[in-house]
From TrEMBL:
Binds 4 Cu cations per monomer. Its EC number is 1.10.3.2. It comes from Lactuca sativa (Garden lettuce). This is Laccase. Its cofactor is Cu cation. InterPro entries: Cu-oxidase-like_N, Cu-oxidase_2nd, Cu-oxidase_C, Cu-oxidase_fam, Cu_oxidase_CS, Cu_oxidase_Cu_BS, Cupredoxin, CuRO_1_LCC. Residues 42-156, 168-321, 447-567 form the Plastocyanin-like domain. Lignin degradation and detoxification of lignin-derived products. The keyword Oxidoreductase applies. It catalyses: 4 hydroquinone + O2 = 4 benzosemiquinone + 2 H2O. NCBIfam families: laccase (TIGR03389). Residues 1-27 form the signal peptide. It is found in: Secreted, Extracellular space, Apoplast.
């Protein structure tokens, strides 16, 4: 699916949109946007990768799932019908969900799961966001195959703050296991060890030619381009457990967006992206003859000192074509192509430099609304820990324990009733408590020698925020069982990344260097390996909002918590009642 050329007249542009995006044609128009209806049938589907076939959970039997396409200001009504034996919820990752928290999707946070044979309608409006977001299952590890892109076009009669691309192409990174991922995580939680590694990374569901000799031509992603054109690549990291570097040989990108927020454009030849993050990049092709081919590759970034990870490389092909050229190609023709050179696996300095390049666009049309004053301050230590091994069981975690993860040494215990329901109906007793610590209760040298006692505590605890409170949150990475980069995702909000650094955060000297002019606005940010990051946001969205590491095994181990934002005084500052079809617990 592609957007038309910069030089097409307006009426041709609209005609193309109606043809390319049929939901635009059938949508119902409102005063500020249109209502777009989608139906997601969650079904098993047989897929073959790496010479093995297995049945996977999909949306409408598509892997990756179908695109959702809308404009800023549109309302989306998405009916999800569960035809599989697993419980299902879907999270619309990055959507602000202003006063629509019932549609956010994380299981047992805003809703109980959709059970087999049941359905639920997710109903929300896209407010103040343009760019690329994505959706994924938010139960256990089901998102390994249930994910897809959300394309948000500018409002009608408005345009991008950059040259209009000739075409737009989603680039979705994923992870593929030959085994059932539910069995993988269940085994890890049972033994206390790290999970079995994935067997491959994928680009748009395809692992490419670098994995064993049975990879078929159909398993390699091919980006077909014409010379001298500007393409918009909508990049999504949907991998479960790995941050990734991405590069196309002999080409460069111009980064224009992060997490559906415009940034000051900058050029790079290598993209770094964590699980959960999205980015729009402009990609201008060279004036080359047809048949020119270049390899594109992605591989992980990791500083983990314990466990193993999938240290493989996914590859695709950039192919130059002409209007008359056949689109078919032979996979043997690419085997001699050189692979692009990517940063080292543990290129921490590169990652720090990369993240420092991001600045909000910050003009009159897209202003920066970072809070200049702060009412509530929090300091969260995030990292790994351990749980004792149960009696009569042999555990394979550190020193015979089980791996765990925590925020301020609290490892989150999932409730059996959705937190938002408990809060809305005033039935929080026995479901959650409001005593989540604002600072670590036992401070230590976070980026240095870890404490002797690495055991975590457990609880279902939330932070309560009055409506419209301004918040500053410093997240400090710890060195327990090794320093790692932790991509923290906050539901229901964007935040401004006002500072970051290495080592331990210094509350006396570090705030002097905060960027309160044009900090990047995101929904997912990496807490640097053995470092810290500071964000600010305004709690203007009533509801209960999940915050967690987007490395799935860390989420499973408990690196998660929730913010409960209270109603404001005015009607438009209150959470509406739940929809009648909200799944039962």
């Amino acid at each position: 699916m592609a957007l038309p050329s910069t030089f097409l007249p307006a009426f041709v542009f609209l005609t193309f949109c109606l043809c390319l995006y049929p939901h635009l044609a059938s949508a119902k128009h409102g005063s500020t946007g249109v209502t777009r209806h989608y139906k997601f049938n969650i079904r098993m589907h047989n897929v073959t990768r790496l010479c093995q076939s297995k049945s996977i959970i999909t949306v409408n039997r598509k892997f990756p799932g179908p695109r959702i396409i809308a404009r800023e200001g549109d309302r989306l009504v998405i009916k999800v019908v569960n035809h599989v034996s697993n419980n299902i919820t879907i999270h619309w990752h990055g959507i602000r969900q202003l006063r629509s928290g019932w549609a956010d999707g994380p299981s047992y946070i805003t809703q109980c799961p959709i059970q087999t044979g049941q359905s639920y309608v997710y109903n929300f409006t896209i407010i103040g966001q343009t760019g690329t977001l994505w959706y994924h299952a938010h139960v256990s590890w089901i998102r390994s195959t249930l994910y897809g892109p959300i394309v948000i076009l500018p409002r009608r009669n408005t345009s991008y703050p950059f040259v209009k691309p000739y075409k737009e192409v989603p680039i979705i990174f994923g992870e593929w296991w030959n085994n059932d991922t539910e069995a993988v995580i269940n085994q890890a939680l049972q033994t206390g060890a790290g999970p079995n590694n994935s067997d491959a990374y994928t680009i748009n569901g395809l692992p490419g030619p670098l994995y064993n000799n049975c990879s078929s031509p159909k398993e390699t992603f091919r980006l077909k381009v014409k010379p001298g054109k500007t393409y918009l690549l909508r990049i999504i990291n949907a991998a479960l457990n790995d941050e990734l570097f991405f590069k196309i040989a002999n080409h460069t990108f111009t980064v224009v967006d992060a997490d559906a927020s415009y940034v000051k454009p900058f050029e790079t030849d290598t993209i770094f992206i964590t699980p959960g993050q999205t980015s729009n990049v402009l990609f201008k092709t060279k004036n080359l003859t047809s048949n020119a081919q270049f390899m594109m590759t992605a591989r992980p970034y990791s500083t983990a000192a314990v466990g193993t990870f999938d240290n493989t490389t996914v590859a695709g092909v950039l192919e130059y074509i002409s209007d008359t050229m056949s689109s078919s190609s032979n996979i043997t023709s690419i085997k001699g192509l050189p692979l692009p050179t990517l940063p080292a696996i543990n290129a921490t300095a590169y990652v720090a430099n990369w993240t420092n390049k991001f600045r909000s666009l910050g003009n009159s049309q897209f202003p920066v609304n970072v809070p200049q004053t702060v009412q509530n301050r929090y300091f969260f230590a995030v990292g790994l820990g351990s749980d004792p091994c149960p009696k009569n069981q042999t555990c394979q975690g550190p020193n015979g324990t089980k791996f765990a993860a925590s925020i301020n040494n609290i490892s989150f215990t999932s409730p059996t009733i959705a937190l938002l329901q408990a809060r809305y109906f005033g039935k929080s007793n026995g479901v959650f408590t409001t005593d989540f610590p604002s600072i670590p209760l036992s401070p230590f040298n976070y980026s240095g020698t870890p404490p002797n006692n690495t055991m975590v505590s457990h609880g279902t605890k939330v932070v309560v925020l009055p409506y419209n409170t301004t918040v500053e949150l410093v997240m400090q990475g710890t060195n327990i069982f090794g320093a790692e980069n932790h991509p923290l995702h906050l539901h229901g909000f964007n935040f401004y990344v006002v500072g970051q650094g290495t080592g331990n955060y210094n509350s006396t000297t570090d705030p002097a260097n905060f960027n309160l002019v044009d900090p990047v606005e995101r929904n997912t940010v990496g807490v640097p390996s053995a470092g810290w990051v500071a964000v600010r946001f305004r709690a203007d969205n009533p509801g209960v909002w999940f915050m967690h590491c987007h490395i799935e095994i860390h989420l499973s181990w408990g690196l998660r918590m929730a913010w409960a934002v209270m109603d404001g005084k005015l009607p438009n500052q209150k959470l509406p009642p739940p929809p009648s079809d909200l799944p039962k617990c």
